[in-house]
Structure formats: C-alpha cells, structure tokens
Amino acid sequence: MGAIQIDRVTKVYNADRRDVLALDDVSLTIPDGEFGCIVGGSGCGKSTLLNVIAGLEPPTEGAALVGGRPVTGPGPDRGMVFQSYTLYPWLRVRENVEFGPSLAGTPAKERHGQSDELLAQMGLSEFADAYPSELSGGMQQRVAIVRAIANDPDVLLMDEPFGALDALTRSGAQRFLTNLWEQRRRTIAFVTHDIDEAVFLADRVYVMSPRPGRLRKEVVIDLPRSRDPEVLTTPEFADYKREILELIHETAAETRA
Ligand SMILES: Nc1ncnc2c1ncn2[C@@H]1O[C@H](COP(=O)(O)OP(=O)(O)OP(=O)(O)O)[C@@H](O)[C@H]1O
Fold first, then answer.
1. Domain count of the fold of the chain
2. pTM of the model
3. Looking at residue 257, what is its pLDDT?
4. Which of 78, 1, 7, 39 is nearest to 202 (CA)?
5. Do both 40 and 93 map to the same domain?
C-alpha cells in the first residue's frame, strides 16, 4: 500500500534546443488509499506528472515517492492504465489478465482463480475466452483495469482511461471503477480533462495551471460514498464543479494575459 508523494518536482524537457518547463516546483500528496484526480487545461503537465510517478520520466529536480520509497524507474508496485487500449490483441481476455501474474511466477491455479474472480466482479466472465477485438471499447478498458489490478499494485496510475468512450459507456466505466476501488482501496492518481468525472470519482482534485505546469489548488471532495450518478444533480456537486471550473478559467486567463 502507499501514499503517492510528489516532492518539489520540476521537469524541464529539451525539445528542438528549447527548454520547456513542464512542471515547476510541484508538491502534492495523495494519501494512502485515496482517489486523487489531476485536472487542468492542455499542456499543464498532467501526463508528465503521471510519468514521473510511473518512473518513465526522471524529474529534473525533486522526487516522487510511492509508499515512502523514492521512484527510480518503472516497477510492479505501480499499475498503469492509459487512454488507448493497450491489451495484447493476440491474447484472450483471460490471458491478458493473467499475463503479469504469469511473469511474476504465480502458479496457474492461483492465477486462474484470481482472474475468474476479477472478471466475474466486472461482469466480464462470459468474455474470458474472447479476443480484445471482439469487445467494445468500454469492455476493453474494463479489461485493461482488471489486468492492472491482477498484478496487485500498491497504486494505480490512470491517464484519461475513459477519454475515448462515449458518454453512456463512460459513466458505466466510472461506476465500475469506483465500485472496484471501494472494495480494494488502492491509492489512485487519475488524470482527466472532464470535471464531472473528476468530482464524481475523487476524494481530492488537484487543479493544475499551464505554462509553466504548477499545482494551483487541491480541492477535497466531501461527497458521501458510495456515489451513484444521482450525485451529479446535487447542489454540492454543482458547487465543486463551479469552483474547479473557475480555477481552470482563471489560470487560462492568467496564461493569456
Ligand atoms: N517528451 C516531451 N518533449 C518535449 N516537450 C514535452 C514532452 N512531453 C510533454 N512536453 C511538453 O510539456 C508540457 C506538458 O505536457 P503534458 O503532456 O504533461 O501536459 P498535459 O497536461 O498532460 O496535456 P494534455 O492535457 O494536452 O495531454 C507541454 O508544453 C508539452 O508540450
């Protein structure tokens, strides 16, 4: 288990002999077992932040820590889910889910038991022997989440995982993820452009501002769980949404000024 900590992280990319300050002295903590959403306009460093936590991009200054341990590279303690479907097309659903545990040397019987249970929880049992191309986009993303969880990571890192889904499928996938999270309580860092999605899912929303990428504000979402889509129509939900949208519009206006 583990909290995700970003400790004074600065990230400079050097592109075409020009420095881009993607993250400027960003510090934040997603406490152990909490659901954190990172939002903000295009180019404010959301994906960079996730890649630093994943160990895919080294920070120029500062450090990311997971469960108190400094991140020095990718590792099985962190499960990743991206926007594009990243299932292995040549493997069946069950084989995709069992791929990581198989590499880790988990015995076949244990692996099958676990994948059966996870696929049943997600309503995917009848697709266990299907290939990814036989599934809808929403189902493929559910399988991608199941596959990340099958590796039993301490934390989940998700970059716009539902970005390619239509509204109805997206809302189903959000409920699926919150149900799963309520049962397993892994720390999650979830990047999204969608403010409704962030408020619906999160314990905390981290609002970033662009050029340079900075943390503008952390908003604690104090809405009761379990949440269902009716929460979207409550005044409390509307208040959180307004607060976050105003912050994003302010930062966009400041950047233009
Ligand atoms: N590999 C790279 N090389 C050079 N510059 C990069 C690289 N990756 C990102 N950047 C720049 O760093 C800044 C932050 O990018 P990043 O993708 O982290 O933002 P983002 O908030 O995820 O954006 P979006 O919402 O559009 O995906 C941008 O100005 C981007 O152009």
1. 2
2. 0.92
3. 60
4. 39
5. no
Please name the residue whose Cα sits nearest to atom 18 of ligand 1.
Answer: 45
Range of the domain at 147: 88-152
Determine the distance separating the centroid of ligand 1 and the alpha carbon of 42, expressed in angstroms: 8
**Residue pair 108/89 in contact by the 8 Å Cβ criterion:** no
- Per-residue pLDDT tens digits for 124-143: 899 999 999 999 888 898 89
With contact defined as beta carbons under 8 Å apart, do 118 and 128 qualify?
no
CB 195 within 8 A of CB 238: no
- Same domain (yes/no): 208, 118: no
Give the pLDDT of residue 82.
Answer: 84
In angstroms, the CA 67 to CA 65 distance is 6
C-alpha 138 to ligand 1 mean position (Å):
26
Statement to judge: residues 123 and 159 lie in one domain = no
CATH of the domain at 199: 3.40.50.300
Whether 162 contacts 3, CB under 8 Å:
no
Cα 208 to ligand 1 centroid, rounded to whole Å:
13
Q: How far is the CA of 141 from the centre of ligand 1 (A)?
A: 23
CA angle at 68 for the pair 154 and 82, rounded to the nearest 5°: 40
pLDDT band at 256 (very low <50, low <70, confident <90, very high): low
CB 15 less than 6 A from any atom of ligand 1: yes
* Per-residue pLDDT tens digits for 53-100: 999 999 999 999 999 999 999 998 999 998 876 899 999 999 999 998
10 Å CB burial of residue 7 (0-12, 13-18, 19+) is middle
